[in-house]
UniProtKB/TrEMBL annotation:
One of the record's GO cellular component terms: glutamate-cysteine ligase complex
Molecular-function GO terms, alphabetical: enzyme regulator activity; glutamate-cysteine ligase catalytic subunit binding; ligase activity
Lineage: Eukaryota, Metazoa, Ecdysozoa, Arthropoda, Crustacea
Name of the molecule in the record: GCS light chain
Entry keyword annotation includes Ligase: yes
Organism: Hyalella azteca (Amphipod)
Length: 250
C-alpha cells in the first residue's frame, strides 16, 4: 500500500459569486467542476499550509445569514473507497468550509453500486454516516445510484435508514415499480441527478498539482464533495461549491 505524506485540499469557493460560471447554462457537472477549480487556482494568492496539508482556497464571502434558522446545507460526497474514515473526513472538511455545525443532508456516491455489489462493501461507509447522525453533525443520510436490491438490503440492515435515493437520469428513464412502492411505503425520497460518471479527470488533477508546485507527485483522489446552502423560506441558493481531497507523495 502506498504511503502518502502530503494532503492537498482544494475548495473552489462559492459558484454564486463566479460570474463566468453562473452564466454557463447547460454545462455538465464535470464541466462546472473544472471551471470552478480553474477559477480557484487562478484566484489563489498564497500557499496556506497546515502541517502537511496544503489548502487551495477560492474566494468565498461569509454568508450574511449564518445562523441555523432558515438555512439548509446539503452535501453529495463522491467516494473513491468505502472507508469510514474517508467519508467522515469529507463531512468534517465540508462542515468547516461552509462554517456550519450540522449538515442537514449527506448523500454518498460510493465507488461501486453495481447490481452485483454486496452490501458488505457499504457497511464501513454507512456505519460512519450513522455515527455522524448520532453525533448531531448530520441530520439525514442517503445514497446515489444504488440498485433496488442493494438499496432494499441497506435499508433493512441499517440502524439509521437512508432517507434519500438519488438516481441518474442517464441510466434510468423511469423508476422501477418495486422501488417506487418501497419508497412510498418507507417514506424514502427519490431524487434524480445528472452527474457524470467520471467527475474528476486527470487534466484537473494535473492542473492542481502544477499550481501547488508538485507537478511530478504521485497522487490519489480521496474524495470529492459538492455542497449547497439554501435559504429555506425563499428557496434561494446562497452558496454552492466543490471540495477536493488529494493525497500525494513528495
Amino acid at each position: 500500500m502506498a504511503v502518502y505524506s502530503r494532503r492537498i485540499i482544494v475548495q473552489t469557493g462559492n459558484i454564486i459569486d463566479m460570474e463566468d460560471q453562473i452564466r454557463l447554462v447547460g454545462q455538465s457537472s464535470s464541466e462546472e467542476l473544472k471551471g470552478c477549480v480553474k477559477s480557484a487556482l487562478n484566484q489563489w494568492e498564497k500557499q496556506e499550509e497546515l502541517g502537511d496539508v496544503v489548502v487551495v482556497q477560492g474566494r468565498r464571502e461569509p454568508l450574511l445569514h449564518n445562523s441555523a434558522r432558515g438555512i439548509s446545507t446539503t452535501a453529495k460526497i463522491f467516494l473513491c473507497d468505502n472507508s469510514g474514515d474517508t467519508v467522515l473526513d469529507a463531512v468534517k472538511t465540508v462542515m468547516k468550509n461552509v462554517d456550519r455545525q450540522c449538515i442537514e443532508s449527506v448523500i454518498v456516491a460510493p465507488p461501486d453500486v453495481s447490481d452485483d455489489s454486496p452490501l458488505q462493501d457499504l457497511i464501513p461507509t454507512w456505519r460512519a454516516l450513522e455515527g455522524a447522525v448520532h453525533d448531531g453533525i448530520v441530520s439525514h443520510i442517503g445514497i446515489a445510484d444504488a440498485s433496488y436490491r442493494l438499496f432494499k438490503e441497506l435499508y433493512e440492515w441499517a440502524e439509521v435508514k437512508p432517507s434519500t435515493l438519488q438516481i441518474n437520469v442517464d441510466d434510468c428513464c423511469t423508476v422501477s415499480e418495486p422501488m417506487t412502492e418501497f419508497a412510498r411505503t418507507h417514506d424514502v425520497q427519490i431524487l434524480t441527478h445528472s452527474d457524470d460518471h467520471e467527475m474528476l479527470d486527470e487534466d484537473v488533477v494535473s492542473s492542481i498539482l502544477g499550481r501547488v508546485g508538485a507537478p511530478h507527485s504521485s497522487c490519489r483522489v480521496r474524495w470529492l464533495a459538492r455542497h449547497r446552502t439554501i435559504h429555506t423560506c425563499f428557496g434561494l441558493i446562497l452558496d454552492k461549491g466543490y471540495t477536493i481531497a488529494l493525497d500525494c507523495d513528495d
